[in-house]
Amino acid sequence: MEKKQKSRSASAEVWRRLKKNKVAMVSMFVLLLIFLIAVFAPLLAPYSFEETHTERPLEGSSKEFLLGTDRIGRDVLSRLLYGSRQSLQMGIFAVVGSTIIGLCIGSIAGYYGGVTDTLLMRFLDIFQGIPMFLLTVTLAAVLGPSLRNAIIAIGIAMIPGPARMIRASILSVREMEYIEAAKSIDLSSRRIIIRHVLPNAIAPVLVSFTMGMGGAVLSGAGLSFIGLGAQPPTAEWGAMISEGRNFMRAQPQLAMYPGICVMITVLAFNMLGDGLRDALDPRLKN
Fold first, then answer.
1. What does residue 75 show for φ and ψ, rounded to 5 degrees?
2. Which of 70, 112, 249, 267 has the fewest CB within 10 Å, making it most exposed?
3. Which pTM value belongs to this model?
4. What residue numbers bound the domain in which 267 lies?
């Protein structure tokens, strides 16, 4: 009971610090709004993302089409709303997958140390020697262009980040007295890692997770831009930028609108990550 109360009080303290960060709270509100738009896109969008009005291509803003139409007469606003779904899918699923795998690798390396730690870290060194976007593009090209394969490629490329972060955190807590006490009563290594090590080393990973989603959304947009992510007629922000680049002189808004959506989403994730980092820092006593 006492342990639960301490956990609640610690969470309340983190939330109190986070609420004092106005930029982080605004970012959280923006992200919540984007998530709601993604969930309720079919209800909010005036048209289907693939509905065409061939008689009205490349039309400017009007009552029927608030943000105009693209080259084959599809409503830009509707495609932006539906596109939030695909972009957030790439960000969330890729980071969740990379974080889970990274936690496993980092926990094993940090807890056992020695040869196991050395081998796993040298493997990650080799892995990180390849530029992340180059690795993502290569994996996506090998797997084949699709939304699912883009998520897999981004997730694999992002594994070293959370793995190294959790390893560093575990190295700082594995010699603590409560870990020694757990070992003294013959708890299994798996139980010690899950019940005692990870909960006390997870805070930096939460920050990495939040900021990583911004990077994953940006990488996903990049893959779709070069044709390795979401495929037509699926609405996705990076793909919309790619389609709109051919009309930059006549209709620059076709690339500008989805570009702004990507920028706002990535910025919000990064600002919220900064706020979480400050809120989770025990040295700050605001």
1. -70, 120
2. 249
3. 0.86
4. 25-280
Would residue 134 count as lying in a domain? Answer: yes
Q: What tens-digit pLDDT sequence spans the chain (286 residues)?
A: 444 444 556 677 778 888 888 999 999 999 999 999 999 999 999 999 988 888 888 888 888 899 999 988 999 999 999 999 999 998 899 999 999 999 889 888 888 888 888 899 888 888 888 888 889 999 999 999 999 999 999 999 999 988 888 888 887 776 676 666 766 676 676 777 777 677 777 777 888 888 889 999 999 999 999 999 888 888 999 999 999 988 888 889 999 999 999 999 999 999 998 888 888 765 554 4
Run of H or E residues at 235 = none
Question: Would you say residue 43 lies in a domain?
Answer: yes
Cis before 160 (ω within 30): no
What contacts 225, CB < 8 A, 6 or more positions away?
238, 239, 241, 242
Q: Is residue 46 part of a domain?
A: yes
**Count of domains forming the chain:** 1
